[in-house]
Each structure stands twice: as C-alpha cells, then as structure tokens.
Amino acid sequence: SLLSDARNGLFLAQARRTGKSWFLQRDLKPALEAKGWIVLYVDLWKDTKRDPASLISDVIETAFEEHLGWMTKATKRMGIEKLGIPGTASVDFANALDFATLTLADALAELHKRSKKKIALLIDEAQHALTSEAGEAAMIALKSARDQMNAGVEPTLLLVMSGSHQDKLMQLTNSPAAPFWGSRVELLPPLGDAYVDWCAERLEGELPTLRPLDRATLYQAFIEFGNRPQFFMNAFKDALRARQPETAASDWGKLISADVLTLAKRRTQTDREGFASTYLQLEPLERAVLWRLLSEGTQFRPYDAAAMAFYKERMGKTTTAGTVQRKLEALREKNPPMLWKSQRGEYSPYDQSLQDWYNFERNRGTWPPTPAVSPF
Length: 376
Hints:
The protein is an alpha/beta fold. It is built from 14 helices and ten strands. The model is unreliable at 76-82 and 85-100 (pLDDT under 50).
C-alpha cells in the first residue's frame, strides 16, 4: 500500500507479555513463509550477556546454512569468509581464513540474489541493540541494506522491529542520529474481547460445566491484567483449582469468572504496592533521580540546571553531577534493573510497568508514595 511504511521498516511497540513475540513467531512468520519469503527471527533479549550485533549475525549465518547449504563453498570460491559488522567480531564462514569480509547488508542482498526470495528480518526487543556500539552499528547496517534492497519498484527486504517500551524503540527513529530516522513507531494493537471470547469458547468446550462463562467479567479481568494472556490464563487455572466443580451448579461459570476478576484486581494492587515499597527503599537521591526521569520522559536531562534544582528541592540540599551519575548507575544495577541506558547516554525506565505505575499514582493525586504509618 502506498500509505504503508513497510518499505522503510515497521516498528511495533507494546508492553511486555502482551503477545508480541507470539505474534511475530506464530502469526507473521508463517504468513510470510506461506508467501515464499525467507523469514529470520531474532530476540535480542535471548541472551543479554551477548552483544546484540552477534545475535543478529548469528541468525543471518543460520539462514545461509538453512536456505543455501552450498553457500559456504560458494563464498569460499568468492573469497568471502566472514560476515562483518563494524564494531564487532565477524561471523566466520570458513574457519576464519584471512579473506575479504562480507558486510551485513551485502549478506542479506546475496541471500536474496541466490535464493531469489524476498527476506523478512523480525527483531524482537530491537531497542536493546542501542545498548552497545556494535549493536547500533548493526542497526545502521540494516538501514543500509533496506535502502539498497528496497530501491526498486518491488521491495525485497522487510524489517519488523518490536519493543516493549515505546520511548526506547523510538530512539531508533526519532533524531537525525538515529539509524532509522524518519520512520514511525506504531503501537501494536493488544489482544481484546475477541481473544477472551475465543478462550471462553475453548474452555466451555473442554469443561461443559462452565457454561456459560461471563464474557463481560472475563474481559474486565483481561484488561485488569494489562491484556496479558499468560497472566489471564494462570488466574483462570488458579480459580478452577480453588473452587473445583464442588456442586457443578448452573452458575459455576459465573463464579469462576468473578474469581478471575478478583485475582486480577488483587494482582494489580500487589504490583502497585511492590513498586511503592521498592521506591521507598531507595536512597533519597535515587528517589529524586527516578522521580525526575518518570516525570520528564524523553525530555529527561539528568544534569541540567532544572534537574539539579529538582534534586535539591526533593532532598533539601545540593548535590553534584558526579553523585547523580553514580545514582543513575546504581538504579541500573538493581535486581531487577530500574533504568535502561542507550549507547548514546539516554535513559528510560527499564520496564514500562514502572512508568504506568507512576502515571496512575500521579493521576489520582497520590504521588509520591509515603511510608505506611504503624497504628502502634
């Protein structure tokens, strides 16, 4: 479609555990393969100890082996032994002999030329590439491959990049220095009532005594769980185990549906209490820095005059940029981490849920959290 941005790459954001990876692997990948495409999938969170660039290299090397098993010999005859990305070690195609290197962009173009198939590269948690110099170089190389392979009338490379944090993913697109400047980040529509209806129909088929489940109540529970299928189904199993078909009453399905909603609300409250407890356990400057980040979003500048004045107001005393930097690193090193940092020094909450919690408390006028007062 002329109105589609697919030629330039699709950037899809949605919260964690809402089904992005499932969609990419179980829906989009088979659909493209059915059309004759070569589809490569890589999750940059698969192994966070490895450089994202090497994970991308691996999936392309594997594609050569799977789709062009004879390619190793062919590349050797061509004098090509390695798949190289600037800033990272090359992928060795033939025992690291000292021949010319094949760039990431060249490798994708060569794979298309030899296979005569279009190529789709699906990168899950793509924002993680920006945490290393080599990862950012890989994104720049993919942009180069996109420009080369999509220059004709018929595009031959589809890039689809997903992320669990919209602001982080936007760092691939939102400035002249970003690898995909000019592209747009879209919100991947979450699962909704159609999914809940599908689940209810399946469950009623497996356990007829559940008929009829209360769809409206289950949908409310699904929304309460943040449209996360796994949490929703776990709550359903917990509700079944807790009640059992004690009397197989005609309203058993409605009781189970109500129980699932109760569990969803309980989980929401527990999560919010957990965030508040974690926040209150931070040191005063750590709380001030995190507060500033959550309130400023993409405009967060940790060391400017306004930020330093904010920290002073929160703590009642001045601080230094060096001290602020140490607290930023301390927040990144928490288990689990509270902050994410790109190679260019940009910060975001590590988990979107932290930002959602802050927004909720601020909107209802209960920010900042205060310690509970003991009645004794």
